[in-house]
Write a structure and sequence with these properties.
heterodimer, A: alpha/beta, Transcription Regulator spoIIAA, 5-stranded mixed β-sheet, two-stranded parallel sheet, 40% helix, B: 144 residues, alpha+beta, 5-stranded antiparallel β-sheet, 4 helices
Amino acid sequence: MNLKLEDNGQVVLLQVKEERLDAHNSEQLKQELGRLFEEGKTRVVVDLKEVRFIDSSGLGALVSGFKNASSRQAGLKLSSLQSQVKSMFELTRLHRVFDIYTTVDEALEAF
Amino acid sequence: MKNTQIELQIKVPNQTRYLSLIGRISEELAAQLQNYNEDREALANHINVVLTEALVNAIRHANADNPDEEVEIRITVTDEELVLQVFDHGRGFDLNSISQTAKDSQDELEDHGRGLYIMRSLMDSVDYYPIKGGNVLEMHKQFR
């Protein structure tokens, strides 16, 4: 899985550079989020701008990151959801769980 | 009599790397449907996601991640409905136990059963039953 990580010392920006976030690659995202929170990062934005498709495994990886963050008083925010990805969050009611922003800048500023 | 527009049969190895191939085929299929007047992009995504969920169930659970196994997908389009079937050759799994958990759970953060919930929400019916040498997960969606 192609993940791009930027850390400015305040916030970590994790960009998912994949068209699909599914059972084939979502485990890597789950592991990466786990590693970041384990390292003590407290503010993470996952940018989904390039993701056109998400399945229950992809949603599960983000939920795992959210739970991990919550248990450590850290924060995980999402940005730039494409319409079909957003519809999966709404279908599973996860849009009520996550802080979702239209752009990366808005998500970064929200911390 | 049902008038079949399209019937596709695809076999792929029991590996998740083939999910994107099946996803692309299913999205292309949505673009080709005749007499479909609703949102085609949404339909394309829905077929993609329900087939992905069904395939992952077959690959991971029914066929127990055995890379030497294979899964077969059959897509049938008639004037009235879309039928998606995913065949596995494995030990199967209990759809009802998953569905009961998903139904009972009020917690969005509960992982168990989210895939089945998605399939049930987007299709009119989802069934899983044994056939000779394996099982089939069968989904129907009526065109209205």
